[in-house]
Specification:
The protein contains 39 helices and 20 strands. The protein is elongated and about 120 Å long.
Length: 948
């Protein structure tokens, strides 16, 4: 049986105290023992024990106690005991309690008076309260503020009771007089709160009559004022102009909490430019002045919301928002950059990029926590700015190229991808970028960065000097040939495999080298340590980065080197008039390629060259030995055209996403438009006029009306019982982030009254019922609406099931109607999202849960099947449309979505079309949690046949 409860105490069920032990301790004179006994009694009663024999003992031995702790515990005990009988009448023994409470309210000690008044706030029995009212009113004039503020709360709670207005008829008037003379901030706040809740008109009159002095009121009272303004403006929208002026005056309050609430209230009430700008300025000031990281994150969230609806106002504050980058917290920096990048315009891009450049320079000097990740974020932000506004690229590209040799591979990769895009989109910068790239090429240590840099060199070295510099740089980074001598190969065949992992650098042509296992081996200068870092001695390289990576067994890089050198030779033939120079350079390149093949097939390395890389190097050798015009155009033009197509496709997708985000409100043909030029301006301030104008514009453009998807609502109604059941039930399911609300309609289809009808629900999965079921009585052929709240803790498919149990007057036994199951769809929790290819690959490698679903469908077209999966799973396809074009019988695509709980869902679809037009392959789902992987897999298995 459920009861009203206003007190919760943790109870350890290990060894509960016995009632007799508690009684003995209460009867004694030991105050600490009495305190412990009272605590035990309270905890036992909160956990269902009745202990009726203790009441008289407490009245006799605890009531007279003068100890403050005992008196406080006595009030808690009185709070939880039953004060009425089964028929709702007050028990006779409560008269004893009533006399004690009156004595406490007149007690000389202010603490006893205060806690007693606080206790009365949680008392609902009018028969006990009525004799105490004169004493409560008298405490409003007590000299101690603690007593006065609790007396006001007591008056408010009594006035809210069903018979409260009869008990305290003149309470609002009394409190209003009290408010005009009271000086204590907490007491004033409580008094205003009482008027706010019980006599709103009086509270509004008091506020408007003291509007000029609101700024001098305390923080507590100002917060209640803001609550009142929000409540009044919801019901009386025409009067909000007066209140907005009060809010703007409160923006100068010394309390950060008040200022924050003022800004939020302004945004919710008004669309006037003056009000929105004031709110944005306030948020920016809080962002800079507050040191708490949680506060900064909350303020950034508010700015992000403001940006969505009032972009222009936030755009003017972009440099103030950027000052949040001074925080060392990476989450704050990321949110700040996300907001700023959406607000970039030609007017402010130079200032923003200049600030970002300074931040990048700071990451070089300061050794802060997660500095590499911050630098990577800055590089990505600058990349985004430079792509949108190419004119700023020249100011940052050379600075960022200093980070090509960064130890953080992801950061260096972002830089080289940025350089690759800028060199194509900014023809004026090509010469300077190529020169700078060749100068810094030896610093690059990561193979992935090297491959991208080599592609740039092969595509954009066009003049004779650039081509010769490119070939020379690559040859220097590769070092002397051969990569491994014949004698060394023979020795390495006899020695341990560990000899390839020796981390020593030879400085002479031959010398003994100590291997990892302690043995000696003769090592030539050709076989440098593959892991040692490059050192520059008098301008020359002792160890080339390309050489180190090749000796480590990276032959994909070798294939890229081969294709780059082949492109450079083909370009050299076009610009070099001397055929002898071309032949010499071509011969040197062929020797390099042959040396790489020799290295790949030697026993010096633990892993030989893979077939794909070997074939690519052989193709390059054949190309250099016999070139035709058809092959020349493929090597020198087609690669660039493919890259340009990729960039244009990327921009087209970004443009589509921007258009999709821009939702244009439309009004219906018969909607009313109010022309504000015809409005009377008499007595209206500029702010009030602005506010009314913007409200009218919103109404005219349909922003106040939200289209209701009635068809979608009908789809959410689930029939729980059959039409022939005596009780018919159906539920309307609303899923809102962490909550599921079931609005169940129950209809009594019989001619009898159903008593103790109870909707019993249970759940499977990560679902949890919030409330216990209650009993209802339903008249014949009438209906009842029952609401049930369910909490969701993770993204997975859940099931809600249960029964309707009821009694009738004729049958003593209870009747049960079993309900249909309600399946909570995972699609209600996930939404399409976007991430970079690099982020997708990183998450794919990190996530441990994988669900592999074999393709089994009647659909015969790969593209149609992929579109069906995307629609069924509510995911976003990250693979570019151009990569999905064509009819080759094979299709691979990556899909991505994010749940409301912040969980990532990754899907890779690999589809192959067989000769009989049947589709085969697998769909792999990866996530950090098991639930989302399994639920998505079940969804795909169910939907992939092609049905609805």
């Amino acid at each position: 049986m459920e009861k009203y409860c206003s007190l919760l105490v943790h109870f350890d069920k290990g060894t509960p105290a016995l009632a007799n032990e508690i009684k003995e301790a209460l009867q004694g004179n030991d105050v600490p023992a009495k305190i412990e006994a009272m605590k035990n009694a309270i905890m036992l009663m909160l956990n269902g024990e009745t202990l009726p024999q203790l009441f008289i003992t407490i009245v006799r031995y605890v009531l007279p106690s003068e100890d403050h702790t005992v008196q406080k515990l006595l009030l808690l005990y009185l709070e939880i005991i039953d004060k009425t009988d089964g028929k709702g009448r007050v028990l006779p023994e409560m008269i004893l309690i009533c006399q004690n409470l009156r004595n406490n309210l007149q007690h000389p000690n202010e603490y006893i008076r205060g806690v007693t008044l606080r206790f009365l706030c949680r008392l609902n029995e009018v028969e006990i309260i009525e004799p105490l009212i004169p004493s409560i009113i008298a405490n409003l004039e007590h000299r101690v503020p603690y007593v006065r503020r609790n007396a006001i709360l007591s008056v408010m709670s009594i006035y809210k009771l069903p018979q409260g207005e009869q008990l305290l008829a003149d309470a609002p008037e009394t409190i209003e007089k009290f408010l005009s003379t009271e000086q204590d901030p907490s007491a004033r706040r409580n008094a205003f709160l009482m008027l706010f809740n019980c006599a709103q008109d009086r509270a509004v009159n008091y506020l408007l009559s003291n509007a000029e002095r609101v700024l001098d009121w305390g923080e507590l009272l100002q917060m209640v004022v803001l609550d009142l303004i929000r409540k009044v403006c919801r019901t009386k929208k025409d009067e909000k102009g007066r209140y907005i002026k009060i809010i703007i005056s409160l923006l100068n309050a010394p309390s950060a909490a008040v200022v924050y609430e003022c800004a939020g209230t302004l945004v919710s009430l008004s669309s006037a430019p003056t009000a929105i700008k004031a709110a944005a300025t306030t948020y920016c000031q809080l962002l800079i002045s507050q040191s708490d990281n949680n506060v900064k994150l909350i303020v950034l969230d508010r700015l992000n919301e403001l940006k969505a609806s009032h972009r222009e106002a936030v755009m003017d504050m972009i440099m103030d928002v950027l000052r949040a980058l001074s925080s060392p917290n990476l989450d704050i920096r990321k949110k700040t950059l996300d907001i700023v990048l959406d607000l970039i315009t030609p007017r402010n891009v130079s200032e923003v990029v200049s600030t970002l450049r300074k931040e990048v320079v700071k990451t070089q000097s300061a050794e802060l926590e997660r500095n590499d990740e911050y630098r990577q974020m800055l590089i990505q932000a600058i990349h985004s700015c430079a792509v949108k506004f190419p004119e700023v690229a020249s100011t940052v590209v050379h600075l960022l190229m200093d980070f090509l040799g960064d130890n953080n591979v992801a950061s260096a990769m972002d830089v080289i991808i940025f350089v690759r895009e800028i060199i194509e989109t900014n023809p004026k910068l090509r010469v300077s970028i190529i020169t700078r790239l060749l100068d810094t090429f030896y610093q690059i240590r990561a193979a992935r960065v090297c491959t991208c840099a080599l592609w740039i060199v092969g595509e954009y070295c066009l003049s004779l000097s650039e081509i010769e510099s490119g070939i020379t740089t690559i040859k220097q980074c590769l070092g002397d040939l051969p990569f491994i001598s014949v004698s060394e190969e023979e020795e390495s065949a006899d020695s341990s495999k560990k000899s390839q992992q020796a981390s020593t650098v030879s400085v002479s042509s031959r010398r003994p080298a100590i291997l990892a296992d302690g043995t000696y081996a003769t090592q030539s200068a050709a076989s440098e340590n593959v892991f040692s870092s490059p050192t520059v001695l008098q301008g020359s390289l002792t160890t080339g980065n390309l050489r180190s990576l090749l000796l480590a067994g990276d032959f994909f890089l070798g294939a890229v080197i081969a294709s780059t050198l082949a492109k450079l030779i083909l370009r050299l033939e076009e610009v070099q008039p001397l055929i002898t120079e071309v032949n010499k350079a071509s011969t040197d390149v062929v020797l390099i390629l042959v040396a790489m093949l020799q290295l790949g097939q030697s026993s010096f390395l633990s892993h030989p060259i893979e077939n794909d890389s070997r074939d690519r190097i052989v193709i390059c050798i054949r190309l250099l030995c016999n070139t035709c015009e058809g092959l020349r155009s493929i090597w020198l033009a087609s690669c660039r055209e493919s890259f340009v197509g990729m960039l244009s496709d990327k921009r087209a997708r970004e443009t589509e996403e921007i258009k999709a985000k821009a939702q244009i409100s439309q009004s219906q043909p018969d909607d009313l438009i109010d022309f504000y030029h015809l409005k009377s301006r008499k007595g209206m301030s500029q702010l009030e006029l602005e506010d009314q104008v913007h409200d009218d514009l919103k109404r005219a453009t349909g922003e106040f009306t939200k289209d209701a998807d009635d068809a979608n609502k009908l789809n959410r109604i689930i029939q729980l019982t059959g039409f022939s059941d005596p009780v018919y039930a159906e539920a309307y399911v609303t899923v809102h982030h962490y909550d599921i609300l079931l609005d169940v309609t129950i209809i009594n289809r019989t001619k009898e009254t159903l008593q103790n009808l109870c909707l019993e629900l249970a759940t499977m999965g990560d679902l949890k019922l919030v409330e216990r079921p209650q009993n209802y009585t339903i008249a014949p052929e009438s209906s009842k609406q029952i609401k049930a709240n369910i909490k969701v803790s993770s993204t997975e498919t859940g099931v809600i099931f249960g029964n309707i149990v009821y009694e009738t007057s004729n049958v003593l036994e209870r009747n049960v109607v079993v309900l249909n199951d309600i399946h909570i769809d995972i699609m209600d929790y996930i939404s399409p999202a976007v991430c970079t290819d690099a982020a997708f690959r990183t998450m794919w490698a990190e996530f441990e849960w994988e669900n592999k679903v074999a393709i089994n469908t009647t659909i015969t077209d790969e593209k149609e099947f992929l579109d069906h999966i995307i629609k069924s799973t509510n995911m976003k396809c990250l693979t570019a449309p151009s990569a999905l074009e064509g009819e080759c019988g094979i299709l691979a695509a990556n899909l991505y979505a994010k749940s409301v709980f912040g969980e990532d869902a990754l899907v890779n679809a690999s589809i192959e079309k067989q000769a009989d037009s049947k589709l085969t392959g697998y769909i792999r789902i990866r996530s950090k949690t098991q639930g989302i992987a399994l639920s998505l897999g079940d969804k795909i298995t169910l939907k992939q046949k092609g049905g609805n």
